[in-house]
Design brief:
28% of the residues lie in helices and 29% in strands. With 327 residues, it is α/β, with parallel strands linked by helices. Helix 1 runs parallel beside helix 10.
């Protein structure tokens, strides 16, 4: 069986790895320069930032076996400090039960997991797949012939590819939020805080998530300096998606100083990442969407949940569906 997978994010890598281990021939296509999708890491000067998902919580799902038993663990870090909450920047301890769930990252950045998963796979980067063609029981993707296709981009993008085949699926329930992610590096020591991240559970404040990267993992900032990632709320991100960085950064710096002190007023490293499809607010049902799939299976967090471990699980489900039908 020869399978094309569109998207080399976590779902696509999970599907590709599972299929290849079972003897299938697999090619992954991704428009980006690297694997991982929203499990993304960026280096700015000597600072390292996880710009999308900032940690990985396996929760006993399939990704746990991969991370803790199958893949190289030399760079794997279990995050020691918990997640706290903030209400209008007033900080409180987080939920004890939720903080009992082990969370992990990798010393070079969480994207290192994607690179490990991609080892040995035929991944063709910088390749934008705009159309699919069906020829009887086979499909043409980028000039090659395949027996089946797995689509893992966000649902709006996957739907466009389905439409190129004259097909549609019941995916109206899958709706995504956008997110502006801001990376700041400071020539200041990492604050002495009992948490590695803050979340505004109610999402009423413009600043929804703060990950103090240098409190989360060694090596994210040079000695005596601080790295942090700040992710803005869905409302703020929607309203300011086209706003220039020069107008956004002063807002964010005000919040940072309220939390950590006036000395955090002049970052020495600044970068931003705008995620149009950051994570799903509501999802479609994998089984319903892929009932009578005719050789084209949808996977990804739009059919699972906006978490790394759930996206990985949907990729496993897509692979297993094909393998069961071919056996």
């Amino acid at each position: 069986m020869r399978v094309a997978i569109v998207g080399a994010g976590i779902a696509g890598l999970a599907a590709g790895r599972t299929l290849q281990k079972s003897g299938a021939s697999v090619v992954l296509y991704d428009k980006a320069r690297g694997v991982g999708g929203r499990l993304a890491t960026r280096r700015v000067q000597d600072f390292v930032f996880d710009t999308g998902a900032t940690s990985i919580a396996p929760r006993g799902l399939g990704i746990e076996t991969a991370m803790l038993a199958e893949l190289d663990q030399s760079e794997l870090i279990q995050i020691q400090k918990p997640i706290y909450t903030h209400t209008n920047l007033r900080v409180s301890p987080g939920d004890t039960a939720r903080n009992s769930t082990p969370r992990y990252t990798y010393r070079p950045g969480s994207n290192h997991l994607a690179k490990l998963l991609a080892e040995g796979l035929d991944v063709r980067l910088n390749t934008q797949v705009d159309t699919l063609k069906r020829d009887g029981q086979t499909f043409e993707v980028e000039g090659s012939t395949f027996d089946a296709v797995i689509l893992t981009p966000p649902i709006p993008q996957a739907s466009l590819l389905l439409w190129s085949l004259g097909e549609s699926r019941p995916v109206a329930n899958a709706r995504y939020r956008s997110c502006i992610s801001i990376m700041l590096g400071f020539d200041q020591p990492t604050p002495d805080i009992p948490y590695h991240a803050l979340i505004d559970v109610e999402q009423r404040h413009p600043l929804t998530w703060i990950s103090v990267e240098s409190a989360k993992c060694p090596g994210r900032a040079p000695e005596g300096k601080t790295a942090m990632v700040l992710q803005m709320s869905p409302t703020y991100s929607h309203d300011h998606y086209q706003t220039s960085d020069e107008r956004i950064i002063p807002d964010v710096l005000g919040y940072v100083q309220d939390l950590f002190g006036s000395e955090f007023n002049s970052p020495v490293a600044i970068d931003t990442k705008r995620w149009k499809y950051s994570q799903p607010e509501t999802v479609a049902v994998f089984e319903t969407v892929n009932n009578n799939h005719n050789g084209v299976i949808l996977a990804g967090d739009g059919l699972a949940a906006g978490r790394v471990e759930r996206a990985y699980e949907s990729g496993l489900m897509a692979a297993r569906l094909l393998l069961e039908e071919s056996s």
